[in-house]
Amino acid sequence: MPDFNFLLLHVTDHVASAALYHELLGVPIVEQKSDIAILPLRDGVMLGLWSRATVEPASTGQSGASEITFAVADADAVEATHADWGRRGLTIIQAPTRMSFGTTFVALDPDGHRLRVFAPPVA
User: Fold this and answer.
1) Does the pTM of the predicted model rise above 0.70?
2) How are strands ordered across the β-sheet holding 67-71?
3) CA-to-CA distance for 46 and 54, rounded, in angstroms?
4) Which of 24, 35, 38 lies closest to 108 in space, CA to CA?
5) Could you give the CA distance from residue 50 to residue 34 in angstroms, rounded to a whole number?
């Protein structure tokens, strides 16, 4: 089975998107070219932010049809991340909410990609 090692998002401004993800996730921008920026996520998985204008074949997808999910320790961490991301100006489309899988909220990056933060329920 092939190794999963990259998540690519098609973005309007890869430089601005890289700066945002660098700030949100606290990870370095390890490569930045004229049309793509790359940041490490974990365990060899990278986040690529590719300029929508140069993607080949041309991008036909619509942002917001999928999510990138980030787990945090507990509901207090969900609340703290929600407050932080709100202060940073991200659009929040779901306030912190208890759901069957835990406490969660959803924000949008500038291109409309959904960013879900959640904490599993306490056992």
Assistant:
1) yes
2) 67-71, 114-119, 102-108, 91-99
3) 19
4) 24
5) 10
Report pLDDT digits (tens) over 42-90: 889 999 999 999 999 998 888 888 899 999 999 999 999 999 999 999 9
26 Cβ neighbours under 8 A, 6+ residues apart: none
Joined tokens for residue 63: 């942002």
CA distance linking residue 79 with residue 118, whole number of Å: 10
The strand pairing partners of 106, in sequence order, are 94, 116
Concatenated DSSP letters of 4-65 = P-EEEEEES-HHHHHHHHHHHH-----EE-SSEEEEEEETTEEEEEEETTT-SSPP---TTS
Provide the phi-psi class of 26: left if phi over 0, else alpha when psi is between -120 and 50, else beta.
left
Question: In degrees, to the nearest 5, what angle opens at C-alpha 86 toward C-alphas 62 and 117?
Answer: 65
